[in-house]
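pipeline/complex-builder :: batch 7 item 3
reading input block
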Amino acid sequence: MPIISTAGLARTFTTRSGPVEAVRGIDLTVRSGEILGLLGPNGAGKTTTLRMLTTLLPPTGGAATVAGHDLLRDPAAVRRRIGYVAQSGGLDPQETVRSELVTQGRLYGMNRARATARAEELADDLGLTELLDRRTPALSGGQRRRLDLAMGLTHRPEILFLDEPTTGLDPGSRTDLWALVRRLRDEHGTTVVLTTHYLDEADSLADRLVVVDNGTVVAEDSPAGLKAAHGAASLQDAFLAVTGRGPAPVDTTPVAV
Amino acid sequence: MLLHDTALLFDRYARQTLRSPFQIFFGALMPLLYLLLFGPLLTGLPLGTEGDSWQILVPGLLLQLGLFGASFAGFSIIMEKNWGVFDRMRVTPVSRLALLLGRVLRDAALFVFQAALLVLIALPMGLRAPLAGILIGFGFVALLSVALASLSYALALKLRTPQEFGPAINTLAMPAMLLSGLMLPMTLAPGWLDALSRLMPFRHLVDAVREAYVGHYTTPTLLYGVLVALGVAALAVTVGTRTFQKAIA
Ligand SMILES: Nc1ncnc2c1ncn2[C@@H]1O[C@H](COP(=O)(O)OP(=O)(O)OP(=O)(O)O)[C@@H](O)[C@H]1O
Ligand SMILES: [Mg+2]
């Protein structure tokens, strides 16, 4: 019984210059407890897909079940079971780290005491304890990202959607985040769907990879399977082969720079 | 759920407002300038109404404060959208209606506070009005704020380009102010303008507050003002709620 399944999930944006088919029908199944890596070039439709699965954006086609609930019929039930960290975060510059964490807990229905305790626990887990009383604009990019992440974890969601969670993190924080994601899965059985442009990250963290390009799934396999299928030594080469953006043929004419 | 969430968000927004004295006092500045620099011009003029010029002008300024303050309220949601805060809240199970009401109630509280400030300053300048009338005036400011802020948030959600928001609001608010006789009573107007202004809901609100300021609480004008204010507020909150629920389903 998959924890996420979609059938023909699609989204077309209407813009002044005509329709933009951001997602053209994605069929996806994710097993409970799986770490799924969603890969794809810029503009492939990864964020749009996550925004649909997290109830933020109504699909223009298709259907999906998330954590046992129909996305369109019961979005409220879906919301209670998922956590989402957006690509560009979501911090209010007028608030402190502590108040953001506490508010998040209370938005998920915790009382003040529980939300406060949970805020401290999360700060401890993500190395934010020293920063609790700082306003969010006074955080570094990586600290801000860790706070975004803490907010997504507040209610211990069954499914965690992370949109480029490690962009802007230093190597140490990135390794910490990988460890955190593995621990969530191992200790709590959390299902994690994450997008990334770092193929080493996809390689070491994800159980399975789904590559999207132009709004459709173009490949789907384990990191090892994907490499094998394309006779590629690295995931990088496999990715380039799958998305048709193979290494440029060696050109003999000198390039003007 | 709705009550809990509304209280929670009201608390968050009220704290944000309290941290910003600029936001608290700046909104009162324009009506205050009218009070100080325009009010004295009217004291000797025949305005063709019962009560002295302060009893005419102050009700108008109170509603002007609500009109301009609340109709620009939508800016805050445009900011929240840009910061990603709006989506971050939308992805939680928080009540959709609370996302609207928490803000709208904060706005109503802010504008009633500013209205009280304005009345306090008007007293030494010569305003005399019964306490009940003054309180009724605050009630109208609250209703007007709720109505306009709801519409403003709905509009801010609908607009694709935030740059359109300011000009759109100005274009709507200026004629609304002029046509409702906020500065000078419409009794001075020629017949066509008076007739036209009766189509403007705010006209009935300001007339009602002026009645209350001269101590008439049981007249048709006041009753009519109350009905129009309640009607407009109910309609606006409905539109706001629909827009919120649809735009953020
Ligand atoms: N609100 C919108 N209106 C119109 N087009 C949009 C909108 N949002 C996204 N798009 C378009 O949809 C396509 C997919 O965008 P999306 O953000 O899902 O890509 P992505 O895979 O997340 O890319 P990246 O790796 O750069 O984050 C892009 O072509 C984008 O320009
Ligand atoms: Mg993206």
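note: Residues A 46-47, 87, 163 surround magnesium ion (ligand 2) (CB under 6 Å).
queue -> next item
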